[in-house]
Predict the 3D structure of the following.
Amino acid sequence: MLFTVLGPVGVHVGGRRISLAHGHERTALAVILAADGDVVSADQLIDALWGARPPASARKSMHSHVSRLRRSLGTWRAGGADRVLSVPGGYRIDADIDARQFLTLAARP
């Protein structure tokens, strides 16, 4: 499973791009991937999803979006759902990311 951030945010499995049906799932994925393994708080995700005027149900909705993202990833690969981790303080991702691969390759002599 390869996550892409260079170009459209996405997920590739076996060389094939998979679709994340909801825009909020893609946004949550983009924010978590941009943290590159650091923890993203619930407040950061809420801000990314709704900006300065989140709905009263924002926290519950955000958790639902992350849950759907996990299910989507799990559909495509065993263990995929375990890539988005709930950790103290928020979420982080354990993933192969194209940007990290690019930096590794660019650093080679």
